[in-house]
């Protein structure tokens, strides 16, 4: 045993005598001066230290019998977390969530999302996050729903992420009720930097003539649309302009949202399709905006032959009702032929030839 100043230093003896962790590390350095300090890691939290004689329940037993988890949930958590060093600590975490208004199902969701959550520090990690929501005035039901849908918020920085994000949303939407509508389905709004996405995008859309009321109404419905990079949002708007949608129209923001689906379609083709469809008087711009994939089909091989068939059938009173827009652009060539051409071959056979059936788009 190495000596220092004539005395023998034994780490185990030092530990039994109640030496603090720092003193213990220092003694180890005395024993082996050549050992790099970065390789010595004897720090431990006394509250989670497991004594050799202490009998700890399995994770599955703890969750099943103590907190009444479903067998499936308990098994899933146990497959990730081998054991609980301090069941009392984990128990206090789960009890706190229940006392805060979380249902058993919501507690399960949180733990299943990240089993290591059972080992977290209740006072430093969990309680401060819940308190932020409470301080903002959210109800217990809203807090439980938001956190259980996006447990990652419990791992966010209070000052660098949670408070700034909630402040942005509250300032934009005006009330906790509106903010909760978004967060109940899209809690991930709280884990990203809204100052770099949502804020500039909203300002840009407002400059395009879109009202804040419409933005607030659509945010819970199309949340991801508002979180694109600002330069991408500008491309969406440019594509909506190419479609010919008036910026003052309530349909403009829908057109911008559908833009990613038609990025590969040329402006010339978009205008031609819109012209052909609107000329019928049967469809309006909302049909096209709500069905952006309609702009990906061929004017010559799909729209013109079908519209000509339908116009002839309508003039000859063969149509009870003009087909909806979905039927016009989505229905396969084979089905369109069987429904609108085959029964009236003598009247429209020359318009919609067999060759048309074999063509796709």
UniProtKB/TrEMBL annotation:
UniProt family annotation: Belongs to the mTERF family.
Protein's UniProt keywords contain Disulfide bond: no
SMART domains per UniProt: Mterf (SM00733)
Pfam families named in the record: mTERF
Keyword annotations of the record: Transcription, Transcription regulation, Transcription termination, Transit peptide
A single GO molecular function term of this UniProt record: nucleic acid binding
Name the UniProt record assigns to this protein: Uncharacterized protein
GO BP annotations, alphabetical order: DNA-templated transcription termination
Keyword Disulfide bond (UniProt): no
InterPro entries: MTERF, MTERF_sf
Lineage: Eukaryota, Viridiplantae, Streptophyta, Embryophyta, Tracheophyta
């Amino acid at each position: 045993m190495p000596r220092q100043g004539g005395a023998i230093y034994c780490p185990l003896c030092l530990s039994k005598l109640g030496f603090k962790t720092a003193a213990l590390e220092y003694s180890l350095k005395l024993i082996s001066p050549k050992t790099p300090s970065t390789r010595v890691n004897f720090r431990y939290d006394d509250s989670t230290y497991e004594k050799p004689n202490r009998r700890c329940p399995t994770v599955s037993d703890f969750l099943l019998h103590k907190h009444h988890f479903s067998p499936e949930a308990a098994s899933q958590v146990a497959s990730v977390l081998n054991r609980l060093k301090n069941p009392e600590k984990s128990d206090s975490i789960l009890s706190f969530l229940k006392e805060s208004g979380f249902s058993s199902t919501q507690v399960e969701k949180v733990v299943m999302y990240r089993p290591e959550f059972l080992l977290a520090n209740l006072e430093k990690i969990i309680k401060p996050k819940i308190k932020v929501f409470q301080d903002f005035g959210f109800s217990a039901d809203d807090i439980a729903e938001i956190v259980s849908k996006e447990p990652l918020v419990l791992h966010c920085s209070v000052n660098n992420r949670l408070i700034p994000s909630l402040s942005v949303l509250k300032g934009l939407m005006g009330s906790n009720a509106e903010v909760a509508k978004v967060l109940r389905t899209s809690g991930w709004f709280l884990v990203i930097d809204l100052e770099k996405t949502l804020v500039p995008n909203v300002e840009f859309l407002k400059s395009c003539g879109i009202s804040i009321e419409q933005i607030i109404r659509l945010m819970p419905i199309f949340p991801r649309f508002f979180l694109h990079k600002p330069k991408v949002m500008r491309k969406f708007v440019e594509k909506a302009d190419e479609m010919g949608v008036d910026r003052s129209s309530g349909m403009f923001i829908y057109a911008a949202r559908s833009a990613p689906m038609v990025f590969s379609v040329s402006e010339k083709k978009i205008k031609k399709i819109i012209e052909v469809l609107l000329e019928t008087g049967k469809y309006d711009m909302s049909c096209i905006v709500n069905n952006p994939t309609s702009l990906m089909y061929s004017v010559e091989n799909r729209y013109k032959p079908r519209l000509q068939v339908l116009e002839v059938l309508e003039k000859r009173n063969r149509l009870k009702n003009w087909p909806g827009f979905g039927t016009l652009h989505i229905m396969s060539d084979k089905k369109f032929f069987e429904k609108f051409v085959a029964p009236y071959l003598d009247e429209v056979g020359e318009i919609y030839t067999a060759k048309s059936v074999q063509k796709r788009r």
